Amino acid sequence: MAVHSSIKSLLRESLPQSIRVAECCVSRQFGYPAAILLFCAIDSIGSFYRKNKNFTIMIDGKARYIAKDGVQHFFILNSDFFELNLSRERIEQIYNNFRSLLVHNSSLPPGCFIISSPDKDPFPIDKTNHAVNVDSLLELTKKAVEKFIKQIDDIVPTSDQHKYIMFRKLK
């Protein structure tokens, strides 16, 4: 841990730390805290693209941008960072049924599960059950964080999220 003079510097430390802790959780079969950490990293990356109309993501065959916070941060899952091709409905299901309930209530609704599988699908689904595969999501998020950090000098200082964080200085 260090004292950071910039948001970029802090992100270069905090995001990889979250990934390392998520790796430890997955290796010890602590899927719930691993999922929480991974969803927070996804949310964080998406937040730095909010209101950036030059950064578009294909969802349901349409180019979209992250216009506001919340579920739209998860549009990042369809970007080059994660290379998924999820429908808007599926992104909303993931956000509402997994990310929000795990982070805020340490709970999941019936039919939703955290699994650990060598399967490559991070969000497997069948007719009655939805899941988050923490093994696959960890690998995708690890690569996304690496890509984000490589671009951080161009992304963060001009982002709306950076301005918002800087506005919140201690008063």
What does this structure look like?
The protein has 171 residues and is mainly alpha-helical. It has a domain at 7-91 and 137-162. The protein has five helices and four strands, in the order ααββαββαα. It has helices at 7-27, 31-47, 88-105, 134-155, 160-167, and strands at 57-59, 62-64, 112-115, 130-133. A two-stranded antiparallel sheet has the order 1-2. A hairpin with a 2-residue loop joins strand 1 and strand 2. It is globular and about 45 Å long.
Keywords:
171 residues, mainly alpha, two-stranded antiparallel ribbon, two-stranded parallel ribbon, 5 helices, 4 strands, globular
**In angstroms, what is the radius of gyration?**
16 Å
SS element count, helices: 5
Helix content: 40-55%
Cα(first) to Cα(last) distance is 24 Å
Mean pLDDT: 92
Structural class designation? mainly alpha
* Global shape: globular
Strand count:
4
Strand order of the largest sheet: 1-2
The fraction of residues assigned to DSSP E strands is 5-15%
Summarize the structure.
The protein has 171 residues and is mainly α. The chain has helices at 7-27, 31-47, 88-105, 134-155, 160-167; strands at residues 57-59, 62-64, 112-115, 130-133. Helix 1 (7-27) packs antiparallel against helix 2, helix 1 (7-27) runs antiparallel to helix 4 and helix 2 (31-47) runs parallel beside helix 4.
